[in-house]
Amino acid sequence: MFPALPPQPADTPWPTEAWPTGPLPPDADAARIAAMLDHAFASKPPADIGETQAIVVIHKGRLVTERYGPNHGPDATCWSWSMAKSMVHALVGMAVGDGLLDIHAPAPVPEWRGAGDPRGAITLDLLLRMSSGLAFKEEYEADKPSDVIEMLWGAGKDDVAAFAAGFPLAHAPGGFFYYSSGTTNIVARCLADTWNARGPAFEALMRARLLDPLGMTSARPKFDAAGTFIGSSFCFCTPRDFARFGLLYLRDGVWDGARLLPEGWVDYARTRTFQQPDCPDGPYGAHWWLDLAGPGSFSANGHDGQYIVVCPDRDLIVVRNGLTPTALGPQLKAWLKALAAAFVAPAD
């Protein structure tokens, strides 16, 4: 069903302290890679993919290529935007592994517990699969009504989860896919309630359980005034730290001999969600996108062209940070797919 998730090679140290480095793989197309990176980091951002600020490539657990634009470098943090949603997926997995959450039970959302409220049928699984049915509008264009902008910077900014949970249903739960940042912030509050931790207490747990074990020392998660992790959008990191997070998933939730995510949780992330035939952004799993770099790949995708692309069949991770207008998204995805293909041929 899925490509196997490769183990860390025995001769490769885990990058908790620093990334081990290595040469390009012998079957990489070095000339093609150089030409693609020269194009991406041209003095004027190219018209097809916009501004690239950072590229980091990990092959078989080693950093084999990185390049940075002006005012960026290995120590500069970048926006996560919606790549943070995949971090929320990891935290939910930890709570599931602790026996504290059941993703197939009704989500613990107080606003939906009233007698006869049809939203009471929404599970955490449906939220993670963007299939809650809530009438939330995910728009980023200034001339279009936007619930996500209102949530992050308007009336909802002090309590993003309460704002999102207040929407009625537009569709029956489970019957319609619609990508929504509001759903992730509802999940983040469910986690906070489950752990009885908000704001600094939640951040301390997040660091102890996820960020510190991976060595993600640059990570800066953001919280609203209610103490909810704004997991839809805000966990600033260096590109190398985004790559560490990708490696956790490429290694099936295991890090340096310790299982951080429950067995099968990564497979759950890459199990395809029901979607309408006309969905424009590609197949979706559970808070991870699927197949961007070919069948079996999966990725954390963020607004303006942020990506952590995980390719199990190539034992490859590609991180890209930048500033790409939405209209150029398809061209950037095609560029990332071609870059991954140039690094190494898939395993048989």
Distance between the termini: 15 Å
Which superfamily, in CATH terms, is the homologous superfamily of the largest domain? DD-peptidase/beta-lactamase superfamily
Helix content: 25-40%
* CATH fold call of the largest domain: Beta-lactamase
User: How would you describe the shape?
Assistant: globular
The appropriate CATH architecture of the largest domain is 3-Layer(aba) Sandwich
Q: What is the strand tally?
A: 10
The level-1 CATH class of the largest domain? Alpha Beta
Count helical runs: 10
Number of domains: 2
Order of strands, widest sheet: 2-1-10-9-8-7
Radius of gyration over C-alpha positions, nearest whole angstrom: 19 Å
Structural class: alpha+beta
Percent range for β-strand residues: 5-15%
H/E element sequence: HEEHHHHHHEEHEEHEEEEH
Give the biggest beta sheet.
Answer: 6 strands, antiparallel
Q: Stretches where pLDDT falls below 50 for ≥5 residues?
A: none
What would your notes on this structure say?
With 348 residues, the chain is α+β, with helices and mostly antiparallel strands. It contains ten helices and ten strands. It has a six-stranded antiparallel β-sheet with strand order 2-1-10-9-8-7, sandwiched between helices. Strands 3-4 form a two-stranded antiparallel sheet. α1 (30-40) packs antiparallel against α10 and α2 (83-97) runs parallel beside α6. The mean pLDDT is 97.
